[in-house]
Amino acid sequence: MNSDNLRMLVGFAIIMIILILWQLLLPGRTRTTPPPTPAPVESLAVHPQAPVLTTTPEPEHQYPETSFTLSNRFLEVTISSRNAALNSCYLKNYRVQLIPEGQTILGIQELAQSPLSGYQATDTSITLQYHTTPGRLTLTWIIGDDYTLQLLLDAESAFNRLTFDARGGIATTEANLKEDLANFHFYARASGRVHQIAASNLRRKPFGAAADWAGLKSKYFFAALVNQTGVDSCQAEALPDGRVGMQITHTVSKNPARYLIYLGPIEYNRLRQFGLGFENVVSLGWLKPVALAILFVLRLFYQLVHNWGGAIVIFSLVMKLIFYPLTRTQTRQMRQLQLLQPKLEELKKKYKDDPQQLNQETMRLYQLYRVNPLSGCLPLLIQMPVFFALYAVLRNFIELRGAGFILWLKDLSQPDTLFGHIPAGVPLIGGFALGLLPILMGVSFIAQNLLTATDKKNWALTVIFPIFITAIFLNLSSGLQLYWFIYNILSIGESLIATKGGSLWQKFRKAPKPGVS
C-alpha cells in the first residue's frame, strides 16, 4: 500500500471517529431527526414513585383578571391576578417571549378559584393578597436589575402546601424548531448535585424528587425557581411537542418563604455568578475547559473588531500560528515523500507480484530517509479537541446567536443556507443546508491537496476525500465553516511558500538588478 492510500485510509478513519464522537458528545444538531441527548452532568435515578403531572384543565374563572407589569432594561414580565401566575416574560435584548402564547408559568394551583382581595404596586414590586378558605395568602414579586425576580410568599398555617404550576413549559424561540426542541431539558439540584434529564428520558418515565431548585432549559434560554429557605418536591415530564413541563410543591413551614426566579439567557459567566450550579446548564462534557477557553479568546478578538465573524477569522490565524510547527514538519515530510516518488515507483515495478515484500521495502525506505507517511494526519488529530470545542461554542453559546458576518451570513451559529437545502430524497445528506461557504471550503481543501499530494493522480485522496468532508460540513455552523475555510487558505499560502518559495527566491536573487549590465 503506497503512502497516499495509507494516509487516505487513516484520514477516513479520523473522520469516522469525528462523526462517532460528534454523535456521542455534542448536543442536538440540525438533522431532520432529533439528535442524541448529551451526557448528563450527573446521572440521576428516576424516583420510583415519581408522580405524573396532571393535565386536567383548570376550572373556569368567575372573577375578572387584572394584570400587573414589572420591567427593567433586560426583561418585562406580566403577572396575572389569577393564580398569581406569570403570563408574559419578554427578553428585550433577544426579542423573544419566554412563555408560550396562552400559557402561564409558576401560577399557584391552590388559588385557582380565589379572587384577588387586594394589591399594592410600585415601580419594582407587586404585592398580591388573597383570602381563601384555608386562610390568607400574600405574594410579593420584586424585579431585580437583571434577569431575576424575587418572590416572597407569606401563607397562614392553614395552608399545608402550595403548588407552582409550570406544566406549560417555556416557549420555543428558534427558527430551527427541531434543533431547539432537541435541547429541551429539565434540571434540578438535589443534595448539592445538579441533575439533568432530557425530554426523551422524561417521555419514558416522569421524574419526582426533592430539590432546592428546578428549571427548564431550551437551546438558549433557562427558567429556574430557587427555594432560598428550604427544599421543594419537584415533578417533571415531557410535553407532547417535545418540550418539558414541571410542577413544584412547596410545603408551608417557614414564613415568609423566599424564592429566586431566573428567566433569561444561558450565559455561562452570568449563570456561574449565582453560585447555585446554574452554569451546568451549559452542558459540554469533557470539552468544557477547551470550549470556555475558546470563548474567552473569541471575546477578546470581538473587542478588537466588534464582529464575531472577524473574531473567528483572527482566531483561525492564531490557531494557524500555534499549529505552525506541526504543519511545518508535515510539509517537510510531504516534500520528502515527493522526492522519494521515483524510488517508490521503482519498488512498485520491482515487486509488483509480491505485495508483502513491496510493503516491507517501502517501510525500509521510509526508515532510511526518516519519513513518516502518517505525519500528515498528526495535525488533524491534535486539532480535533479544538474542532469539537469550537463547534460547541458556535452552536451553544448565546453570544453567537444571530451574529452575522458578511452579506448572506446572518447567523454564524447556523449552517450557510445561501442555496437552500438539499432535497430530502438524497441519501445521507437529504435535507442538509447548501451554502457557498462550505463549497469554498471544499474547493480550498482540494487546492491544498493538489499542492501537497505526493501522487497527483490519486483522485481518491485529492478530490473525493475533500468532497466527503465538505458533505459533513454542510450542516455544521457557518462559523465553523468560516474557520476551516480561512484555515485552509492560510495552509495553501504556507504550502506555496514551502514548495515554491525557495525557487522563487533563487530566481529573484539571480535576476539582474536595474542599472547593472
What's the β-strand tally? 18
* Global outline: elongated
Number of helices: 11
Helix content: 25-40%
Q: Give Rg in angstroms.
A: 30 Å
Helices and strands, in order, run as: HEEEEEEEEEEHEEHEEEEEEHHHHHHHH
Regions with little confidence, pLDDT below 50 for 5+ residues = 1-8, 22-59
Q: N- to C-terminal separation?
A: 54 Å
Structural class: alpha+beta
Order of strands in the sheet with most strands: 6-7-8-9-18-15-14-11-12
In total, the number of domains comes to: 2
Q: Summarize model confidence as the mean pLDDT.
A: 82
Q: Quote the beta fraction.
A: 15-25%
Largest sheet: 9 strands, antiparallel
Chart the SSEs and their pairings.
Elements: H1 3-25, E1 67-71, E2 75-80, E3 86-91, E4 96-97, E5 107-108, E6 116-121, E7 125-131, E8 136-143, E9 148-155, E10 161-166, H2 177-181, E11 185-190, E12 193-198, H3 199-204, E13 207-211, E14 213-217, E15 221-227, E16 232-238, E17 244-251, E18 257-265, H4 268-272, H5 288-305, H6 308-350, H7 355-368, H8 378-396, H9 436-452, H10 459-473, H11 478-510
Helix pairs in contact: 1-10, 5-6, 5-8, 6-7, 6-11, 9-10, 9-11
What does this structure look like?
The chain is elongated, with a radius of gyration of 30 Å. It has 11 helices and 18 strands. The relative contact order is 0.11. The longest helix is centred in the middle third of the chain and has 43 residues, at 308-350. It has 2 domains: 3-27 and 291-499, no CATH class; 67-282, Beta-galactosidase, Chain A, domain 5 (Distorted Sandwich), CATH 2.70.98. The strands form 3 sheets. A 9-stranded antiparallel beta sheet has the order 6-7-8-9-18-15-14-11-12. Strands 5-10-17-16-13 form a 5-stranded antiparallel beta sheet. A hairpin with a 4-residue loop joins β7 and β8 (136-143). Residues 1-8 and 22-59 have low confidence and may be disordered. The protein is of the alpha+beta class and 517 residues long. α6 crosses α7.
